[in-house]
Amino acid sequence: MNATSDGRSQDDISPDDDDKVPTAESGYDEQEPHESVHRERVLEALGQHESSLTRYAARLTGDEHAARDVVQHVFLQLCDQPPTARNGQLAGWL
Length: 94
Fold this sequence. Notes:
The protein is mostly helical. Helices cover 53% and strands 0% of the residues.
């Protein structure tokens, strides 16, 4: 009998087990709906503003690699901010 990584035998696994979404009970954090919306908004902002911010930061730093680091840091900060912190002024916040 072969055991899975969680100690169950393969006989205990149903074909539907692959379709199950991990839950808090199974040891995974459930993603809140507002978190996925926030993630989508951050990714949208990244797509809309990354190149212009990188050019701007490159002019300020004189170094394209440093500019990319700066922009990456800004977007990491954006991930940590609740949407209300920007007061509807994303471009100005960035």
